[in-house]
Design a protein that fits this description.
With 325 residues, this protein is mainly alpha-helical. Among the domains are: 97 residues, Arc Repressor Mutant, subunit A, CATH 1.10.10; 87 residues, no CATH class; 32 residues, no CATH class. Helices cover 28% and strands 6% of the residues. The chain has ten helices and four strands, in the order ααααββαααααββα. Strands 1-2 form a two-stranded antiparallel sheet. Strand 1 and strand 2 form a beta hairpin. Helix 2 crosses helix 4 and helix 7 runs parallel beside helix 9. It is rod-shaped, with a radius of gyration of 48 Å. 13% of the residues are buried.
């Protein structure tokens, strides 16, 4: 019995532990009871589960809108909005619309620690959540919750990986409309000359073709020059000088200038000068002006006559006028 037997099997050694080991310390203050149906939900994403835990740990009347949550966490507004939609779809959040005494309608958010059946109007509500005003700062002890049998994870739900919500399209900057982007019914038609004038039309074509000498962005295509030339000819017909027309078309150009032809069309139609007023006609009963005074060739007396070198009546009677002989 005292002989040592080296062929005997060695005692089994304790294997290294695998998986997770819990070291739990009981909480006495500032804790939240969360059921395993939420913490181990097979269809919610990790963002939605963590957001639900955060919302359930908040005091009453705390704001939980998308902007406030995005300022609190590193996730953006797109992921937070998707997580809120997940929680509403699975019954952990609901929205109730209330009308205030002043007539304003607000949306109140309700958080459930047990999933509830969502009514159709709550499921179709927008994702933007609005709560009541922020209460004064201070620690409010959470309400104790008693776990029930419903807190166990469901056994009949097959595991399914949670799909990462795709971010929505980035908002595009609002484009500033060009002056000619109004509806066709609201635009003024291009002016046209009252009488055709070939020389005036040539001046208008030359003016439009050389606008790029003052600003390179005003290099117009031939089709636009042909379309706008009658309008410039109408300006010239109304007494506008070519230098004034050029200054009106090229002054204070917008930045950026995306459509030069549309801008010139807008200015030629909107800034058309008035026609030159015509001189009033002379009245028909106005007496004609008398002929001027001239000296008589015979007696040097002043007489009214249309031509110089004429003779007065007395000199013509005396035979001094050679034309009367």
């Amino acid at each position: 019995m005292d002989t040592r037997n080296f062929s005997a099997p060695a005692c089994p050694q304790q294997l290294n532990p695998r998986g997770i080991t819990h070291i739990n310390t009981p909480h006495t203050t500032r804790y939240t009871v969360v059921g395993n149906h939420l913490a181990q939900h097979r269809q919610l994403s990790l963002t939605a589960i963590g957001l639900a835990l955060h919302i359930q740990s908040l005091p009453e009347q705390t704001r939980v809108d998308i902007k406030t949550l995005a300022d609190r966490f590193p996730e953006g507004e797109t992921r937070i909005a998707a997580a809120l939609r997940e929680l509403k779809a699975h019954g952990y959040l609901a929205q109730v619309r209330k009308r205030l005494p002043n007539g304003r309608v607000v949306t109140h958010t309700v958080s459930y620690n047990q999933p509830q059946a969502q009514p159709p109007e709550a499921a179709s509500a927008p994702a933007t959540l609005t709560a009541t005003p922020r209460p004064p700062a201070g620690d409010v002890p959470p309400r104790p919750a008693t776990p029930t049998a419903a807190s166990r994870p469901p056994a009949d739900v097959p595991p399914r990986p949670a799909a990462e919500p795709e971010p929505g399209p980035a908002p595009q900057p609002e484009a500033r409309p060009e002056p000619d982007s109004r509806p066709a019914a609201a635009r003024l038609p291009l002016p046209a000359p009252q009488a055709p004038d070939l020389d005036r039309h040539r001046k208008a074509t030359a003016l439009l073709s050389t606008l790029h000498h003052q600003d390179p962005r005003l290099l117009l295509p031939e089709r636009a020059v042909r379309r706008l030339a009658p309008a410039v000819a109408a300006w010239l017909e109304r007494g506008a000088r070519p230098e004034a027309v050029r200054h009106t078309l090229t002054a204070d150009l917008p930045e950026p200038l995306r459509n030069p032809a549309a801008l010139l069309t807008h200015r030629l139609a909107e800034l058309l000068p008035p026609p030159v007023p015509m001189a009033p006609p002379l009245p028909q009963d106005r007496p004609a002006a008398p002929p001027p005074f001239h000296n008589c060739e015979g007696c040097d007396r002043a007489i009214r006559t249309a031509r110089p070198g004429a003779y007065c009546r007395d000199c013509r009677t005396a035979g001094l006028d050679p034309a009367a002989a």
